[in-house]
Amino acid sequence: MVQRVTLRKRQPYNTTSNRRRIVKTPGGKLVYHHIKKLATSPKCGDCGIALPGIPALRPRQYATISKRQKTVRRAYGGSRCGDCVKSRIVRAFLVEEAKIVKRVIKSQSKPAKK
């Protein structure tokens, strides 16, 4: 006959926050161990990949670790991945270059109209 196991919390429903595992204690009793939810790592806002260098924790645990562990020392560190930051910088540079080229073409075309 299998030993009965009683719940340790007051919530009886099988929800994601109430997952449990049966564990045998050193005394031979079977008890429930409540399992915490799995943590997901923060994702890049542009491409959606997990940000390297930032630990995967539950939201409340980020308050207990230092700022050094929550970010990366770079522009957009902790929000965007390195490849996306690189593409943003290149795009901004090319936009500025296009503006300069447009201005030069406009200045060259003005004297020709006279």
UniProtKB/TrEMBL annotation:
<keyword id="KW-0687">Ribonucleoprotein</keyword>
<comment type="similarity">
    <text>Belongs to the eukaryotic ribosomal protein eL34 family.</text>
</comment>
<dbReference type="GO" id="GO:0006412">
    <property type="term" value="P:translation"/>
</dbReference>
<protein>
    <submittedName>
        <fullName>60s ribosomal protein l34-b</fullName>
    </submittedName>
</protein>
<keyword id="KW-0689">Ribosomal protein</keyword>
<dbReference type="InterPro" id="IPR038562">
    <property type="entry name" value="Ribosomal_eL34_C_sf"/>
</dbReference>
<dbReference type="GO" id="GO:0003735">
    <property type="term" value="F:structural constituent of ribosome"/>
</dbReference>
<dbReference type="Pfam" id="PF01199">
    <property type="entry name" value="Ribosomal_L34e"/>
</dbReference>
<dbReference type="InterPro" id="IPR018065">
    <property type="entry name" value="Ribosomal_eL34_CS"/>
</dbReference>
<dbReference type="GO" id="GO:1990904">
    <property type="term" value="C:ribonucleoprotein complex"/>
</dbReference>
<dbReference type="InterPro" id="IPR008195">
    <property type="entry name" value="Ribosomal_eL34"/>
</dbReference>
<dbReference type="GO" id="GO:0005840">
    <property type="term" value="C:ribosome"/>
</dbReference>
